[in-house]
């Protein structure tokens, strides 16, 4: 049986250096070398999972197929590696301590004193070894390499048990099976323009003092490191100069795997892990093309995101990525206008007229409107006004989770004339509850009690936009995260007034997709399609929104129906051995959704 190889990514100096993107890019690079890759994210906080954490503190909660509510970095792993992870791929202090304490209560430790060392550290190591063996790429058998990202910064008190466990783990798996990549900061002082190595030196010294020695340094900086800077880092950090990589600022994160490849990071990792010579040089052709296309796009498409947490873009990270995937597929430069939902409300007009005017100006100038999910009543009235504006002015609209629910509420108020129509989440005593608490939900516990994970939606209408965007399939599987739903007792009245429920669950009692048939693009979904969007496989509904926003929805729908990509652009040259057919089109027989990134280069790279 082959031995698993492990690549650990740690961070130093400051948080927010991009460890997640670095770990994802390393995994992609190794995958392009012909290896099978899985990933684990370690979050040292005491929460069992990310489900109950504030988006302002931690960014979005990413949802997996199995219902796991996890750190947003697992979204990066899935998007870069095109894998399906499980909740066990996200290790937290809370999970580890609960696991150990459950064993203690059962008497598994035979009366011993339960301590951080060895019981907590052993549990961490056993968890890593167990999860690393679970295939996540749809193939049989374990992966070749497991990329582990340790959250936080070296020196954080809460990460100490994990540092100790990983130090023991490196000895446990042995030399040649463990590679440590330390992501650190090399700042440039504007006063003198000099790259300063001292922060990285101190970070590495602290890491070594804790029992871990880096094999490779990945240095974040505004520009490529000078050779003399690399030599200095090599001397003081005891890392070969060839194993010091610069991750300098780039126009978009799709360049990061290319930076790693160009600096031979894969060769350094192969050397540390005693892997045989590289069987496949990582060409990263798709990523090269995609990054170049993204850099050269100039025709804008403006999407207004009307939300509650617009002050932190990481709160809607997967939505931003899904919009980007779709806009690149349509050859448009994405411009996101953040509209705080509460700024659209009448009260803001009284209290802060400038903010009110600015919010409405952004909304009215948008080519499309997206209302994402959320919890709580702050900003709900503003979201309802945004949905009304999009409906009445025939602006392309996509409502996700709560966004679908507020679209139903708005329709009931404006079209059915039910002025007090509401969700019981916001008004428990409403006489016209359009949205109600799900009967299986818990009103006493918040964590892990929602309707979570992949659920099946069955299309009810054969001739609607959503079914065409999904390639005329009878059903789809998408990820959910909600505890309220459209009231099934209201559905008949809403449908009679013109609101079409085009997707339902297997019982036909839970509403999943709404559409307005006579609107250019007005769709709401109870699920979160953004979580399954990939750079080369844009989400169908996001592709539809962008297509409608730039007046190309019919082309998107037709491409989905024909299953043939038409490639017609001059932004990126094809490789000499990849030419379009005689009509100037690529004839790759696939739905545009599955390979849309190639829609705007001169040919399909098969």
Automatic annotation (TrEMBL):
<dbReference type="GO" id="GO:0003883">
    <property type="term" value="F:CTP synthase activity"/>
</dbReference>
<dbReference type="InterPro" id="IPR029062">
    <property type="entry name" value="Class_I_gatase-like"/>
</dbReference>
<comment type="similarity">
    <text>Belongs to the CTP synthase family.</text>
</comment>
<dbReference type="InterPro" id="IPR033828">
    <property type="entry name" value="GATase1_CTP_Synthase"/>
</dbReference>
<protein>
    <recommendedName>
        <fullName>CTP synthase</fullName>
        <ecNumber>6.3.4.2</ecNumber>
    </recommendedName>
</protein>
<dbReference type="GO" id="GO:0019856">
    <property type="term" value="P:pyrimidine nucleobase biosynthetic process"/>
</dbReference>
<keyword id="KW-0315">Glutamine amidotransferase</keyword>
<keyword id="KW-0665">Pyrimidine biosynthesis</keyword>
<feature type="domain" description="Glutamine amidotransferase">
    <location>
        <begin position="313"/>
        <end position="546"/>
    </location>
</feature>
<dbReference type="InterPro" id="IPR017926">
    <property type="entry name" value="GATASE"/>
</dbReference>
<dbReference type="Pfam" id="PF00117">
    <property type="entry name" value="GATase"/>
</dbReference>
<keyword id="KW-0547">Nucleotide-binding</keyword>
<dbReference type="InterPro" id="IPR004468">
    <property type="entry name" value="CTP_synthase"/>
</dbReference>
<dbReference type="InterPro" id="IPR027417">
    <property type="entry name" value="P-loop_NTPase"/>
</dbReference>
<dbReference type="GO" id="GO:0042802">
    <property type="term" value="F:identical protein binding"/>
</dbReference>
<dbReference type="InterPro" id="IPR017456">
    <property type="entry name" value="CTP_synthase_N"/>
</dbReference>
<keyword id="KW-0436">Ligase</keyword>
<comment type="function">
    <text>Catalyzes the ATP-dependent amination of UTP to CTP with either L-glutamine or ammonia as the source of nitrogen.</text>
</comment>
<keyword id="KW-0067">ATP-binding</keyword>
<comment type="pathway">
    <text>Pyrimidine metabolism; CTP biosynthesis via de novo pathway; CTP from UDP: step 2/2.</text>
</comment>
<feature type="domain" description="CTP synthase N-terminal">
    <location>
        <begin position="5"/>
        <end position="275"/>
    </location>
</feature>
<dbReference type="GO" id="GO:0044210">
    <property type="term" value="P:'de novo' CTP biosynthetic process"/>
</dbReference>
<dbReference type="GO" id="GO:0005524">
    <property type="term" value="F:ATP binding"/>
</dbReference>
<dbReference type="Pfam" id="PF06418">
    <property type="entry name" value="CTP_synth_N"/>
</dbReference>
């Amino acid at each position: 049986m082959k031995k698993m190889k492990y690549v650990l990514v740690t961070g130093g100096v400051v948080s927010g250096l991009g460890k997640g993107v670095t770990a994802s890019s390393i995994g992609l690079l190794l995958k392009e070398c012909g290896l099978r890759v899985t990933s684990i994210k370690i979050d040292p906080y005491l929460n069992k999972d990310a489900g109950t954490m504030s988006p302002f503190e931690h960014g979005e909660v990413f949802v997996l197929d199995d219902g796991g509510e996890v750190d947003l970095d697992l979204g990066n792993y899935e998007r870069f590696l095109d894998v399906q992870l499980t909740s066990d791929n996200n290790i937290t202090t809370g999970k580890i301590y609960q696991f150990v304490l459950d064993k203690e209560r059962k008497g598994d430790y035979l009366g011993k004193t339960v301590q951080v060392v060895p019981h907590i550290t052993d549990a961490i190591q056993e968890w890593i070894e167990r999860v690393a063996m679970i295939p996540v790429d749809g193939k049989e058998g374990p992966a070749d390499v497991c990329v582990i990202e340790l959250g936080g910064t070296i020196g954080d008190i809460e990460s100490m048990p994990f540092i100790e466990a990983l130090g023991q783990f490196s000895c446990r798996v042995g030399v040649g099976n463990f590679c440590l990549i330390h992501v650190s900061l090399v700042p440039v002082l504007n006063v003198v323009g000099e790259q300063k190595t001292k922060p990285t030196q101190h970070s590495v010294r602290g890491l070594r003092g804790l029992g871990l020695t880096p094999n490779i340094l990945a240095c974040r900086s505004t520009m490529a490191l000078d050779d003399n800077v690399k030599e200095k880092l090599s001397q003081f950090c005891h890392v070969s100069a060839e194993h010091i990589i610069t991750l300098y600022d780039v126009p978009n994160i799709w360049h990061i795997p290319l930076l790693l490849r160009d600096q031979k990071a894969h060769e350094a990792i192969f050397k540390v892990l005693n892997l045989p010579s590289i069987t496949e040089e990582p060409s990263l052709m798709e990523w090269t093309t995609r990054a170049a296309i993204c850099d050269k796009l100039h025709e804008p498409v403006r999407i207004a995101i009307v939300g509650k947490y617009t002050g932190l873009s990481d709160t809607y990270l997967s939505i931003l990525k899904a919009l980007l995937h779709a806009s690149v597929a349509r050859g448009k430069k994405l411009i996101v206008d953040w509209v705080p939902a509460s700024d659209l409300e009448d009260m803001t007009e009284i209290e802060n007229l400038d903010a009110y005017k600015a919010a409405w100006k952004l909304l009215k100038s948008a080519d499309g409107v997206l209302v994402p999910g959320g919890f709580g009543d702050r900003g709900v009235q503003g979201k309802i006004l945004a949905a009304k504006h999009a409906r009445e002015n025939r602006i392309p609209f996509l409502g996700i989770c709560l966004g679908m629910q507020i679209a139903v509420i708005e329709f009931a108020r404006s079209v059915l004339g039910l002025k007090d129509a509401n969700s019981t989440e916001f008004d428990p005593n409403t006489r016209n509850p359009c949205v109600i608490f799900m009967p299986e939900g818990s009103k006493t516990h918040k964590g892990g009690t929602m309707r979570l994970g992949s659920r099946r939606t069955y299309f009810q209408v054969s001739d609607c936009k959503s079914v065409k965007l999904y390639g005329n399939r009878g059903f789809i599987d998408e990820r959910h995260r909600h505890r309220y739903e459209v009231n099934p007792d209201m559905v008949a009245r809403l449908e009679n007034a013109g609101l079409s429920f085009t997707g339902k669950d297997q019982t036909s009692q839970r509403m999943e997709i709404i559409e307005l048939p006579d609107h250019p693009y007005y769709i709401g979904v109870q699920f979160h399609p953004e979580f399954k969007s990939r750079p080369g496989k844009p989400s169908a509904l996001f592709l539809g929104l962008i297509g409608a926003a730039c007046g190309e929805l019919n082309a998107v729908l037709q491409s989905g129906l024909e299953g043939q990509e038409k490639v017609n652009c001059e932004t990126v040259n094809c490789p000499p051995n990849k030419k379009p057919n005689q009509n100037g089109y690529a004839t790759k027989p696939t739905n545009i959704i599955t390979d849309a990134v190639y829609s705007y280069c001169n040919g399909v790279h098969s």
